């Protein structure tokens, strides 16, 4: 199992809270800027401020169940 392509910016918080054994989990192309990482330094997690871009808003008609439209 792998965790890839995440961008986390949590200046006042711990980025990752692991409550289980992480053996067997691979990390790839993750960028994290946080007060603390929460786990040991791991290959596939880069400690840097990620560039996070806002997504465009969706129209109400573009989401939700079909019967609601």
Based on CA inertia axes, which overall geometry fits? elongated
Unreliable residue runs: none
N-to-C SSE string, H for helix and E for strand: EEEEE
Number of helices: 0
Biggest β-sheet: strands ordered side by side in the sheet: 2-4-5
Q: What is the number of beta strands?
A: 5
Strand content: 25-35%
Helix content: under 10%
* C-alpha termini separation: 38 Å
What is the typical, i.e. mean, pLDDT?
A: 89
Overall description:
The chain contains no helices and five strands. It has one domain (2-50). A three-stranded parallel beta sheet has the order 2-4-5, with no helix packed on it. The chain has a two-stranded parallel ribbon with strand order 1-3. The chain has strands spanning 2-4, 7-14, 26-28, 30-36, 45-47. It is elongated and about 45 Å long. The model has no long low-confidence stretch (mean pLDDT 89). With 69 residues, it is mainly beta.
């Amino acid at each position: 199992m792998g965790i890839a392509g995440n961008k986390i910016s949590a200046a006042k918080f711990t980025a990752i809270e692991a409550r289980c054994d992480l053996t067997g989990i691979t990390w790839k192309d993750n960028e994290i800027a946080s007060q603390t990482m929460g786990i040991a330094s791991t290959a596939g997690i880069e400690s840097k401020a990620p560039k996070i871009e806002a997504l465009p808003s969706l129209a109400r008609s573009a989401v939700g169940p079909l019967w609601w439209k």
